[in-house]
Design goal:
Rossmann fold; 2 domains; four-stranded antiparallel sheet; 36% helix; 237 residues; 8 helices; globular; alpha/beta; single chain
Length: 237
């Protein structure tokens, strides 16, 4: 597949399968996404969302199928419960990521300051991570994923530990940067998904149950709330 679609960068997932200890976790997963889309993965615990994101990010090898990340596209990945070097500061953590991506020192300094300001980390930029609250630590991890200005941004529960004000600011940030990126995120909050995502992919038992805009999902399920639509899709209730 080509690096760019008519919409810019693209991501294509084709017939992914993954098993652990003989148990199938991903079963024939296929979908694609274009630049400008924010695609939400929603499903119950154990449905396969995190495994799918790890495969797409290149951290886990699939048993079968393929992931086309668009040739030279840069990936930014925030895993759930992302581990951080606790002795590093937010500034040092972001600098580390930029150094790994080959940013020159002057470009590093500029980008670090942009990320710190973007995520309102300026006030804690020099504190070691182990002294930070969960929300600040999680914002630091998000900043590290955003640092190289990736074409494809993969976020597993990005708002975990955020208070309502932090969550609102982070969601607005993702919306603001989304026109030039593909953003794939998982969340347990259907209200967050409805507010933020252009598409929702509902995964149940390692399979895609539906892939549609939030409003279409509501329509398919006969109206009502997104919570009710989700329950009907995954549990038949």
């Amino acid at each position: 597949m080509a690096e760019l679609s008519k919409h810019g960068h693209m991501l294509a997932i084709c017939q992914l399968e993954k098993s652990f200890a003989g148990k199938a976790v991903l079963k024939d997963i296929s979908f694609s996404a274009d630049q400008g889309e924010i695609v939400g993965l929603v499903g119950r615990n154990g449905a396969g969302k995190s495994t799918l994101m790890r495969v797409i990010a290149g951290c886990l090898r699939a048993d079968n199928g393929c992931v086309d990340r668009g040739g030279q596209s840069t990936i930014g990945y925030l895993p759930e419960g992302a581990p951080l070097y606790e002795e590093l500061t937010p500034r040092a953590g972001i600098e580390f990521v930029l150094g790994a991506h080959g940013f020159a020192r002057a470009a590093q300094r500029k980008r670090v300051n942009e990320i710190l300001h973007m995520l309102e980390l300026d006030g804690v930029a020099g504190q070691v991570v182990q002294t930070l609250s969960k929300g600040f630590a999680r914002r630091t991890a998000l900043g590290m994923a955003l640092a190289p200005n990736p074409d494809i941004l993969i976020l597993d529960e990005p708002f975990d530990g955020f208070d309502p004000i932090q969550k609102h600011a982070a969601a607005n940030l993702l919306k603001a940067i989304s026109p030039k990126k593909i953003i794939l995120l998982s969340t347990h909050s259907l209200s967050d998904a409805q507010r933020l995502c252009t598409r929702l992919i509902v995964i149940e038992d390692g399979q895609i149950r539906t892939d549609s805009p939030p409003e279409a999902l509501l329509s398919q399920a006969g109206g009502g709330s997104l919570d009710a639509a989700f329950r009907k899709l995954v549990a038949g209730s």
